[in-house]
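FAQ: What does the model actually see?

It sees only this:
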Amino acid sequence: METKNNSKKAVFTGVVAALAASSCCIPPVIAAIAGVGGAAGALSWMEPLRPYLIGLAVIAIGYAWYSHLKPKKDDDCGCEIEKPNFYQTKSFLVGITLFSTLSITFPYYSGIFYPDNKQKVIISDNSNIQKTTISIDGMTCDACQHHVNQVVNNLPGIVSVNSSYEKGNTEVAFDNTQTTIVEIEKAINSTGYNVTKID
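And it is asked to produce this:
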């Protein structure tokens, strides 16, 4: 009975840890889908904990599999064998393992949730094209940079935008007769990330 409870706790711990490991990357996608932005960077503080949470998820789900697959002691008492609960079945463990794997790897495929909203900009004078590099604090994964790209691309006159969470910046080319650096900064700050420097 204690093994069943430990297995149940291990599954719960594994799922929570897997979700927590990507919790810094899930809000930007939800914000983009819902059309809101302010809370997107709220969980970026969890990014340094990601490797530990992934490790915890792997250990917990590994223990659940071990508990399920280890040889059972033979009972020669002639007692009726109790039917396992759903959370103790192999199907449930396979489902939880797949769900946890998808949760942990979410940052690597999150870009598919962002529609391509790049606009065709008609430029009447190339001298109006201005390029700037904006340093941004709070981006931790692909989902963050896709979110910034999407929000900036919603502005009129954006020729190109290329954000990088690794560099902590975005490079924007825009028609300064249609939008301004101030409007771009305001759009980025609306995502929950913070503009720290504009070059």
